[in-house]
Amino acid sequence: MSDDVRTAVSGDEPALIPYITAGDPSLAATAEYVEALAAGGADVIELGMPFSEPIADGPTIQDAIQRSLEAGTTPERYFELVESLDVDVPIVCMTYYNLLYQYGESGPDESDYERLRRFVARAAEAGVSGLIIPDLPVDESDPLRRACDEYGVDLIFIVAPTTTDERLAKMREQVSGFVYVQARLGTTGAQADVSDATHESLTRLAEWEVPKAVGFGVSEGQHATEIVEAGAAGVVAGSVFVDIIAGGDDVANRLEAKARELKQGALDGATTDTPKAGK
Amino acid sequence: MSTTKFGEYGGQYVPEVLMPAIEELTDAYERYVLDNEDGFMDEFRERLADFGGRPTPIQRADRLSERYDAEVYLKREDLLHGGAHKLNNALGQVLLARYMGKERIVAETGAGQHGTATAMAAAHLDMPCEIYMGKRDIRRQRPNVFRMRLNGAEVNPVTVGRGTLKEAINETMRDWATNVEDTHYVIGSIVGPHPFPRMVRDFHSVIGEEIRDGVQKKTGGLPDSLVACAGGGSNTMGTFHDLVPDEEVSLFAVEAGGDELVVDDEEGVAPHSASLSTGSEGVLHGARTKLLQDADGQIVESHSVSSGLDYAGVGPELSHLVDEGRVTPVNVDDTAALEAFHRLSRTEGIIPALESAHALAFLEDELGPDADGEHDLGEVIVVNVSGRGDKDLEAVIEETEKRDLDAAPSMEVMYE
Ligand SMILES: Cc1ncc(COP(=O)(O)O)c(C=O)c1O
Description:
The complex is a heterodimer of chains A (279) and B (416). Chain A is an alpha/beta fold. Chain A has one domain (5-268): TIM Barrel (Alpha-Beta Barrel). Chain A has helices at 4-9, 27-39, 59-70, 75-84, 97-102, 112-126, 142-151, 165-174, 197-204, 221-229, 239-247, 251-271; strands spanning 15-21, 45-48, 91-94, 128-132, 154-156, 158-159, 179-182, 212-215, 234-237. Chain A has a 9-stranded parallel sheet with strand order 5-4-3-2-1-9-8-7-6. The two termini of chain A are 18 Å apart. Chain B folds into 2 domains: 16-50 and 86-200, Rossmann fold, CATH 3.40.50.1100; 58-83 and 205-404, 3-Layer(aba) Sandwich (Rossmann fold). Chain B has helices at residues 19-34, 40-50, 62-68, 86-99, 113-124, 135-140, 142-150, 165-178, 196-204, 206-219, 234-240, 275-278, 316-323, 334-348, 354-367, 393-402, and strands at 5-6, 9-10, 58-60, 71-76, 104-109, 129-134, 154-158, 183-185, 225-229, 250-258, 280-284, 287-291, 327-333, 380-385. In chain B, the strands form 4 sheets. Chain B has a 6-stranded mixed sheet with strand order 3-4-14-9-10-13, sandwiched between helices. In chain B, strands 7-6-5-8 form a 4-stranded parallel sheet, sandwiched between helices. The termini of chain B are far apart. Classes of the chains: A alpha/beta (279), B alpha/beta (416). At the A-B interface, helix 3, helix 5 and strand 6 of A face helix 1, helix 8 and strand 11 of B. The structure holds pyridoxal-5'-phosphate. Pyridoxal-5'-phosphate binds at residues 84, 86, 110-111, 113-114, 189, 229-236, 308-309, 353, 355-356, 386-387 of chain B.
């Protein structure tokens, strides 16, 4: 089992985990943006692989996905991009189940595990350290879990504010890398404040050994501070970066500056004495 | 626990934020629908009768019977309140939402027929209701948009993609994920995560029960074949479900063949919606099923002259029954459907929905004067007229003008 993601999130400092969509507006631009995010202090980068029906994403990321698909991004080109990246930061692939399921030529009567294994093998070979599949709840995840274990790829699950204790118990057995705490109901998208659900969710997960990263709505340094103060080991932010890319102006510098702001915010949150969960 | 799958199809592939709501719904489905707790099903059946106007008739179509040299019966779901079979499910789900203590209803709609039925059911049961509808479909189905609003529902236009049913479903799922604690999503067909495909089928299975009784009374036996159009497949499964165990009854699911049965992989579009006939297995909108997708697994944009059939997926149970050989998937093209629309209107005095016209066009393809007759439909044939065509008149005028249709009335003099 690879430890890169877990180590990167649970290091001494609170972690910044930015999301951008690969191929928005082009794969060449993404390579540059990934470097900018890393330079700004990103500890793990979530790189979206575009799927035509992104039901867990809000309008900002949905538009990015559409731009990426129009630019011709395919799973294979995504993997080639990851291979070409020259950064020290683990890459986590965020995408939807159908792309995993369809990857490569499938033979007759292949099991789910055999089909998914092809995707995971290619992802691992390309240098992807973990997967986040928002439309794959733990209940359906056994075949993918098996394939991920085989190739040392982390399978990261999202805990929602609505997740019941019964479901939490199931997820606790399955999760690896880090647990992604969805800070509010709904879909991804930048918000003006940090949701109260954050504190509640972190309290419920306090005893889990994996590090917790909070996302959905994070857009400012101050949010990162509050989230780390609440006990999270990391902060996930996507739409705020995607908005910068959509703006199209001086993108790499602005991505780096935004990453720096969020990372600093997270660091500020860690200077208070609250113990960090998951350490 | 009811199983979440039909063979390998079905399941629950949704974001975690929705899983608790789906578990709650599964529990409610098992208690109220399957076990009739608190008399839910009695109340549902009573409201279907009093508000909905059930049972709907089985009518012998005399001219069609003559034309096709068979006993052709029409199941008149167009006579159900609201003008389509969709009310069975909408009423069932809105009532269930009320039993569950939900406070708000959301739904998606393609043809507008499901949106209309949901808006009516919500007004009838005094629940606030919001409907998502693709921009393109809003243009194609203006009368239904107005009807929804008359019944007090808000209609939210969806502009992404091609602005049809698929995009409207995505958007409604997002609304549901945001408001999941007090909102029920009335899904409009036998698609989506478990328990929707089973529950929606159960609410519609009254269609097949009435077919069994009606044909028994009229002929003393069972029909030889049942024909229904399949978009998501709700009227299809409603028509078939009760007779699936009767192996001697042939079941035909008629899909929208659109312009032609090809997929443009480059452009990511299919000029048809025939996912049972041409699709491959994948995961869309919460279920594993047969889909129109490209080699990478991106869902392609479908097409049909009929907005209610214009969807890249189909219900998992239908996919399963097709694999098992129990249901035969067939398709007809846009022009054949339009001709059938005009034919039924002129010869029987019934203006069918464009969706239902697909089912009727299959008879012409198989038994009409120019037919090549690939399938044995037998002597007694029941076609489900899933809805009436008032909603489609604008689209039919436009599409008829583009084509040189034999059966169509000339509109020229009207425009002078
Ligand atoms: C009259 C009518 N028939 C059929 C359909 C297709 O849906 P399904 O395949 O779920 O019955 C629709 C969809 O809106 C409809 O309005």
